[in-house]
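ugh ok fine here u go
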Amino acid sequence: ARRFRREIETVNPDLIMINSDGSEASAIAGGLWNRHRTLALYNLSVSPVEGGLLDRWADRLMKILTMRFCALVIHASDGARREWNRFTFFPESRSTVIHNGVDEPAPAPAPARSGFGVADEDFIFCLAARLHPIKGIAYLLDAVRLSPGDFAKSKVLICGDGPSLEALTAECSIPPLAGIVQTLGFRKDVVDVIRMSDCLLVTSVASENLSLAALEALMLGKPVISTRVGGMAEAVLNEETGLFVPPKSAEALRDAMVR
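structure:
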C-alpha cells in the first residue's frame, strides 16, 4: 500500500477506481493519498473465507477498512449492496448501484448441435462460470446423480476455466455423469453455446452478484435456473423467466431442472 501510494502521488490522477475484493492494498493506498478521488467497484457478493475464527475476523476487518478508504462504493446489484453494507457496517449514503449490462446479442443462428455431440432432441442445460468450488458445480453434479434417468434425454454443458476444471472433467467421465455432463473448457463463443441451449444454470453458493451469462441468456429468450444469491433476483423473475432454488441443495436443483 505504501509503495503504491508513492506511485499515485507521482502520477496525481483525477480519479482512482479500485476493482475490489482482493485489492485491499490498492484501496488503502488510494484512501491514504486522497479518499475523495478513490472509488471502489464491487462485482461480487460477500465471499466466505476459509479458516478459523481469527482468519474470518481478520478478513472482515480488512473489508471494513477497505471500504472506508473510498469516497464511494459501487455495486452491480442492490442485493449485493445490502449484503456488503450489513457485513461491513458501511453507510448506505456512500454506496450506489450500477447494474451490470451486456450488449444485445446479434441475430444469428444457433450453432449445429452435432459439433458438441448433442442430439437435436436433447434438452441442453448450459452453465458458464469460473470453475471454482464457490460456484456450486458440485451440487449440480449431485443433482444429476440423484436421478440420472430423468436426464437421459438431456445434456449439461459446462463452459469455463478455473482451478476445478481438471477434477470436474475427470468426474464427468465416470457414470452416471458420463454422457450427460460435459466440460467444454474456456470458450470465446459462450453466447453461441447459450443460443444453442434450452436453459442456463447459475448454481453459485456465494460470490455471485449479477451474472453476465444470465443476462445474455435472458436476452436470448432462455429461462434461467439460479440460486438466490447476490443480485440474481434483480434479473430473473421467479416463475416467469426462470426458477430460483436455495444454494447447496442438490434436490431442489434437480427438481427445478426436471420441471
